[in-house]
Amino acid sequence: MRLVFPNPGLDLRIPNYEDLDRMETQEADDRPKWDNKAQYILTCVGFCIGLGNVWRFPYLCQSHGGGAFLIPYLILLVVEGMPLLLLEFAIGQRLRKGSVGVWRAISPYLTGIGVASMLVSLLIGLYYNTLIAWILWYLFNSFQDPLPWTQCPLNDNGTGFVPECQRSSTVDYYFYRVTLNSSASIADSGGIQWPIVLCLLTAWTVIAICCIRGIGTSGKAVYVTAILPYIVLAIFLIRGLTLKGALTGLKFLFTPEVDELMNPTTWLDAGAQVFYAFGVGWGGLISFSSYNPVHNNCMQDAVILSVVTGLTSIYAATVTYTIIGFRATEKYDSCISDNIMRLLNAFHLPEDSISTSNYDAAFNHLNSSSPDIILGLDIKMCDLQTLLSEGVEGTGLAFIVFTEAITQMPGSPAWSVLFFIMLSCLGISTLFGNIEGVVVPLKDLNVFPKKWPNEARTGVTCAVAFIISILFAQHSGIYWVTLFDNFAGSVPLLTIGFFEMIAVVYIYGIDRFNEDLEFMVGHKPSIFWQVTWRFISPLIVLVILVFYLVTRVQEELTYLVWDPNSVEFPSLASVPYPSWIYVIIFLLAGVPSLAVPVYALCRLVFLCCKKK
Amino acid sequence: MLEKIFVLLCLPSALAHQLCTPGASDGYKVRLSIKTALGDQAYVWNENEMFLFRATLAFAMRTHFNGQTYNVSNIVVCDETPRVSFWFVVTSPLDTSQLVSREDVEEAVRKSRNRINSAFLLTDKTLEFIGIAPTLAAPVYPDPPPWLIVFGVIMGAVGAGIIILLVTSVLQKKRKKNEKNVKLTKHFHGTEWDVNQQETDYRVTVGNPPAVSSVVAYCSSVPTLNAMLQ
């Protein structure tokens, strides 16, 4: 006896097998269709492979024990990611509706899951497109030689650089001051940064044109946006491997520390990364699968997508760390050269008496003979390991570390253009799924008038989203982006994923689901899928959710600011959030998570009142 | 007699050496990093190079003070090190025991800095006058900003694309509507059918069941009409 909650009227809400076959053969459906299987796979790959693969996974890999991190990552990919993926694919393909439609068909009380997915997709889409706007800004500025982030503006008498630039670096200054003009706190909005507004306009317009006819247009666009990143990564891999210090970076990335596997945070971070990487819970995958033919082999698709995502993460991490290794080696070499020059100047030694190879010996000799002079100099400690681990996550990786590395390569404008085109393609292809996950539920919830064509719905959604995202074009925009990143895309997604599995396994019924898969694919899902759907995957998601909530609630909420007046400048200073931020956090994380139970309760109350 | 002449001859150079000391208030320290700048093509620093330096500096002083004829002998150098660094002071051509003030020397060097650098194939960083900060080259800001140009190109292309897509959608819809009108008119033997009217009052105009079934049978082969009926 399977544990299934009573669900009256389910058969009335969903098409039965004869209906499905008839719709298939007669093409009597008005639903859009994929032109070919390749479009579908490329769209899903583009959706899953996003900016996180370039700037989150490599950092996690390196900080949690290098090569050893691959073990929890791959295990959780198979045990947590793949079952969730197949669940969304199969339910979309079977019920042939977008996310709200699917959950409403399973049970009207569960519509809240669809609403939550839509809210999460909207909130994530807002800040994600801001990241793409910043990427576009850098892309637009890459068409000049020398690149603008190699130069500091001069101070008033022309003998030195502006102090903010002098104390940090040209790339830091360009990102925080020239591009964002960041204020010193999230409360200090400062005004609108107009170049960023223009870039936001570009980003939203590009998304609008690619999604304007739904998968009719986005299906064509993915041929470019999903394939181009792989080509560019290959080019960067070849270039990266020929650079000095690439192998240092790769060794740093992949050197396994098996002790890290004992640390629970390693497994939690791996699980969270797998979960977010697959784009489960956004609603886009359900929508995309619903355009598939009924007998499409979704099991094969889930496995293919999991394998592709895993391999791409490792591929992107390799490329990233060759470039990081190169930059760290360059900085180390220049640090050593600076120290050598200081020693030569102080002791009046001829120029080639100290080289990088005999630096240590010479330094020790000079230190022992005249330590007081050495103390008076400003000899810096050059540590390659520190340089390899600095700033290598998130926006810091793309806009600071990578841009600095690119300026050291010959022909830097070309490399810069390639790199930012790749990042923008990665981001845009993820946003296709995002927009799908917002527009289709809005249509199902009848937010738009019925007569409106798809073009109008997409256009209005993008226009409204553009206006809301001007929030991120303020001088405090980067702090808002980080806030959204931390809260809108974490707890709600885990909650939705958990509810999705409970809904399909225990409310729709795992037996019915197995029969559906047998009808669609030809054979029942094996014992692996049964066990993971019923116990393992929900348990893993629940554990990650609980641990995440516990750690978040315990720690004081702080964020990093760029403050030239702070003591830690040029490092980012850690300051606590203002107290009104808790309201915002509740709106971002609480409202989507609570949408599921609240909707069910409201519906219950409404029906009870109606009966009376 | 001979000793007196000897002392008199040595006096200028002795005086000159007294004038130039490391840390002199009117002198500057110069540091050259030839190997850093030129690598394999670095030249060896020797007496001839020093002569060139003194001559170049005399040139700089002459350029700055129009009319006063400075000579190589007015540039006094001391404290040479293997690093290739040394101190120099500039004596006035009118009175060799008087030094030219620090500020004047600084101005003269600043004015002709480029010429001094190119005489030695060096740059501001590799030919350092300690205490004279080089005037840095201002960053190049091309006008109009290149990013606006790229932005304009992309927005223009995307805008044109959107307009084209919208226009083709509208045209396609109009064409479909006309086709349906023509098809329905043909099927029902000349009765003028308007697709819009069809939506609301087909039940009224088509009376008995066989006609309804023929309409349904026809309509089920036209996808969108079927959707309307369902």
From TrEMBL, chain A:
The keyword Transmembrane appears for this protein: yes
Example of a GO cellular component annotation carried by this entry: brush border membrane
Membrane topology: Multi-pass membrane protein
GO molecular function, one term: symporter activity
Annotated binding of Na(+), by residue: 46, 53, 426
Highest taxon of the lineage: Eukaryota
InterPro entries, alphabetized: Na/ntran_symport, SNS_sf
Family under the similarity heading: Belongs to the sodium:neurotransmitter symporter (SNF) (TC 2.A.22) family.
Full protein name: Transporter
Source organism (scientific name): Perca fluviatilis
From TrEMBL, chain B:
UniProt subcellular location: Cell membrane
GO biological process entries: positive regulation of amino acid transport
Keywords: Cell membrane, Glycoprotein, Membrane, Phosphoprotein, Signal, Transmembrane, Transmembrane helix
Membrane topology reported for the UniProt record: Single-pass type I membrane protein
Signal peptide: 1-16
Transmembrane domains' residue ranges: 147-171
UniProt keyword Cell cycle present: no
One cellular component term from this protein's GO annotations in UniProt: extracellular exosome
PANTHER family on file: COLLECTRIN
Protein name: Collectrin-like domain-containing protein
Native source organism of the sequence: Perca fluviatilis
